[in-house]
Amino acid sequence: MNKFIALFALVFTFASTVNAQRTLNGVTLPAELSFNNQTLILNGGGIRTKFFFKLYTAGLYLPKKSSDGNAISKADEIMAVRMEITSNMITSSNMSEAINEGFDKSTGKNTSAIRDRIDKMLKTFSGEEIKIGDVFDIVYVPGIGTQTYKNGKLKNTLTGLDFKQALFGIWLSNNPVESNLKKGMLGQ
């Protein structure tokens, strides 16, 4: 009987882990990510589309699940967005354009206070070719800043909660870059 209970517990644990991950557009978003010695859980995920092209798949990772985009954007706690490029329509140039557009939407075109940091972030995307399968992790760590990783390699760290709020607002603000993507990332 004890063996049966142990086997059931093992199967249940495995099934819960598998079910917690999510596959969208051929991309599997892991159930958990670890940064700065902290584990974040997948809150939700979605697909960024433009003109019917599926550009990238994104997942939002938080310490605990939440469906409040404004609260998430404003929070001074560790969190991450993982983006996997799924279209050759994404180039360094149009990624930079999309980031600028996203910051304009997120801040109501009031980017002057963070413009220097936006420009530094843009260099992350323009510094080398972007191709299908590239994975970008954008991680906010309180007291450190917003770190951008490309394929697991740290590319930059940008300080300031104000920058993080505007950046995460690209996906989660009242005026997100795409409302369906926001809903997916919020698990709705």
Explain this structure to me?
This protein has 188 residues and is α+β, with helices and mostly antiparallel strands. It has a single domain (2-185), classed as 3-Layer(bba) Sandwich (Chalcone isomerase), CATH 3.50.70. The protein is built from six helices and nine strands, in the order αβββββαβααβββαα. The strands form two sheets. It has a seven-stranded antiparallel β-sheet with strand order 3-4-5-6-7-8-9. Strands 1-2 form a two-stranded antiparallel ribbon. α3 (92-107) runs antiparallel to α4. The protein is globular, with a radius of gyration of 17 Å. The relative contact order is 0.17. Residues 4-19 have low confidence and may be disordered.
Summarize the structure.
This protein has 188 residues and is an alpha+beta fold.
Question: CATH architecture, please?
Answer: 3-Layer(bba) Sandwich
Mean pLDDT, all residues: 89
- Compute the number of strand runs: 9
Number of domains: 1
- Given as residue ranges, the uncertain stretches (5+ residues, pLDDT < 50) are 4-19
Sheet having the most strands: 7 strands, antiparallel
Helical coverage, percent range: 25-40%
Task: Tell me, briefly, the overall form.
Answer: globular
Order of helices and strands: HEEEEEHEHHEEEHH
CATH class: Alpha Beta
Strand order, largest beta sheet: 3-4-5-6-7-8-9
Distance separating the two termini:
40 Å
Q: Enter the CATH topology name.
A: Chalcone isomerase
Portion in beta strands: 25-35%
The SS-based structural class is alpha+beta
What's the Cα radius of gyration? 17 Å
Count of helices?
A: 6
